[in-house]
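== Folding the chain ==

***
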Amino acid sequence: MTTVRPYHSRKPTDPDVYHWHSDCPAGAQIPGRNKVSGAGTGNRPCRLCEGMD
């Protein structure tokens, strides 16, 4: 598991969560064009990433 800087999706229909593991299956489904650096305002932590800690 590799920890990375937090990122989230800019797509409004995606869940309001942020990711911080490079191998998170949910984060891996975000296309590069929709990935935004940072946790985002009001986004909660990804449960899958929490489980990887």
Summary: The mean pLDDT is 96. Residues 3-52 form one domain.
